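During the reporting period the student researcher (J.K.) took over the structure-prediction task from the postdoctoral fellow and processed the backlog of single-chain submissions. One of the processed entries is reproduced below for the supervisory committee.
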Amino acid sequence: MADLVLFGDILTMDDDLPRAAAVAVRDGRILAVGSDADIAPHIAPHTQIHDVGTACIVPGFVEAHGHPLNEAVMLGEPVVDIRPVTVPDSAGVLAAIAQAVADAGPDGAILNGWDPLLQKGLDEPTLAWMDEQSPDAPLVVLHNSGHAAYFNSSAATVAGITRDTPDPEGARFGRDAAGNLDGVAYEMAAVLAVAGPLVAAAAARYPELIAAECARMNAVGVTTVSEMAFDPAMRAPLAEAVAAGVLTTRLRLYETSGPARESDVEPGDGDELVRQIGIKIWADGSPWIGNIALSFPYLDTPATRALGMACSHGHANYTEEQIFDISTPYFAKGWQIACHAHGDEAITTVLDAWEKMLAAYPRSDHRLRLEHVGAMRPDQFRRAADLGVTVSLFVDHLYYWGDVLVDDLFGSDHGGHWAAAGSALAAGHRISFHNDGPVTPTNPLRNIADAVTRRSRGGKILAPDERIPVEAALRAQTVDAAWQLFGDDTIGVIRPGAHADLVVLSENPLDVDPVALADIKVKATVFDGDVVHGGLH
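J.K. obtained the following C-alpha cells:
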C-alpha cells in the first residue's frame, strides 16, 4: 500500500501517460499513476494523502550540467560572493574586495564572480593591481565564468607557483614578455592550483556545505544534478557527506580528464544516490574572456577592446589530435564523455575527433555530450545528431548576457542565435538545459522561460525563430536531461518504478503566459518520497 498519495494536475513526462490526476508513492518509488480511481486501491489507513489543489506536480528537475561539489565551497565561507547576481556594479565589487582583504587578514582573501561585461567599469586586473590591493597576504579573485582567476604575488607564493612552473594540460598561467607570471590563471587546472590553498580549510565543513547546497537545489525543485568537474580527491569528503545523510539530490559524477587517461573506478561506479558515469574535457573556454574557438571574430567595441579580444577569433585548448588522444582511452573503457565546447570551431574540432574515435570504437548508445554549445550552427547540430552526440545548452546566457552577446561581442546574427535550442530540436536532439553553477543561480524555471521567450534582462528578443515550445523546454529539465545521464527510466519522469522525486509548482507551466514562466513558485520538493522543501498543504 502507498505511503503517500498526491492528488492534483500532474505532468508526468511519460509519453504513455502524459497527464494524470493522482500519484501513489511507496518506499521512495512511484507505486502508481493515473486517475483518482486508479489510485484508490493503494490507499490504506496509514497513507498520507494530500490534494495540492490548483498546483501542478512535475518530476523533480534535473540539472544536467552543474558543479554542486564545487559550488558548495564557492558559496560558503571563506569565499566572498561578488557575482553580478549578488554585486551588480563595479563600485560594489571594488568595495567587496577591500573589505574581504581587511576581514581575512594574513590568511588571505578569495572572491568569486568578477565579470566586467556585466559589472561595467571594471578594468582587467594586473599583477601590480592585485599586489596593491593586498601587499602582504594572498588574494585570489575568480572570474564569474570559472575559466580564469586573478592572483597576487603572495597567492602565487603560497600555491608554489613560479615563472618556472609548467602549465597544466589544457590550462596555463599568464606570463609577460619576459616569461614572468602576470597574475592570471586560465582554465580549470590552473585556476584550481591558484585557488586551492585558500579554500582547503573548507574540507573540514564539507557535510555542512553540501547540506546548504542541496537546500539551494531543492528550493528550485532540483532533485538530480551532475558534477561536471569531479576530482577523485573529493571522494572521501563526499563519502563523509553521504554518511551524514545530508544529500537530498542525486549526484551523477563526471571526472575531469587527467594525464593518465584512466579513472580509479569503473564506469557506473556507485548507487542510485551517487554514481560516477562520465569523463569531462574542456575543448575551449569562456566567451566572456575571449578564449573560445570561433570561425567569426569578436566585434570591435569598447567592451572587447577593454578586454583585449576585439576582432579576435579566440582559440581552443586542444587540437583535434589532442581531443582524440584524450577521449579515446576513456571511451574504449566504456566511459561516457562530456566536452565543453562554446565556439563553432571548437565544436567542429570535437566532432572531427569523435567521428574518428567512433569509427575505431563503435558503440550503439554512447550519448557523447557537447556542453554549452553557445555558437553551435544548425549544420553542426545535424552532424552531431547523425553521430549520436547529444547537446546541453546554457540558455541562461540569453537572460543575463543577451544584450552583451548582441551589442558588445558578436552582433545580432551570431550573438542573437546563441544557444540555438530551436535548431537543436529541429536536428532531432533530446536536449538539456543547465546553469553551470555557480556561474548563474540554478533555476530550471528560469531556463525554461529563457528557451521559450529568448528574452534578455534588458527586454531584447534574441532570434525568435530559435524559441521552443514549453513542453519541449520542460523535457529539457526533466526526462531528456535524465536521458543524457542514462537515468530516464527512474528520474525525470513520473511512472511506476521511478524514484519518487517530485516538484509541486504554483501553476501549470503549460497554462501560463510564457513571460511569466520564471515567476512560477516551487511550493514543495519531494525527494525519495520525503518532503525536503516547502510543504504539501
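The committee noted the following: The chain has 17 helices and 22 strands.
J.K. will present the remaining backlog at the next meeting.
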